[in-house]
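Task: sequence design from structure.
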């Protein structure tokens, strides 16, 4: 990645501005991630149970990491269920195609 491929992006997270170097093709993703993080941190701050930007950031990061791990586990479960079924269907299709080819 060259310097020309990187841009500086200003994001606002919980009422504080940050400038982050980011590949140009990932700018929109960075802005979306910053907004998502800011909303998560705002929700934690608004409960009034957690005080301090550092603590709010850590709690938000833990919550987001937990969400990501749950999604990853769900995807793994779905993959484990779907892949054998796809293989079985592929095998059946191949058998049908072989039979059809023999009939010609």
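Answer:
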């Amino acid at each position: 990645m060259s310097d020309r491929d990187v841009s500086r992006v200003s994001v606002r997270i919980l009422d504080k501005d940050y400038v982050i170097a980011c590949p140009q093709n990932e700018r929109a993703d960075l802005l979306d991630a910053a907004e998502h993080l800011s909303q998560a941190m705002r929700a934690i701050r608004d409960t009034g149970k957690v005080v301090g930007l550092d603590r709010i950031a850590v709690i938000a990061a833990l919550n987001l990491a937990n969400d990501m791990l749950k999604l990853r586990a769900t995807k793994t479960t779905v993959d484990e269920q779907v892949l054998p079924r796809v293989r079985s269907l592929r095998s059946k299709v191949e058998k049908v195609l072989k039979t059809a080819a023999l009939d010609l």
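Residues 3-73 form a domain with the Double Stranded RNA Binding Domain fold (CATH 3.30.160.880).
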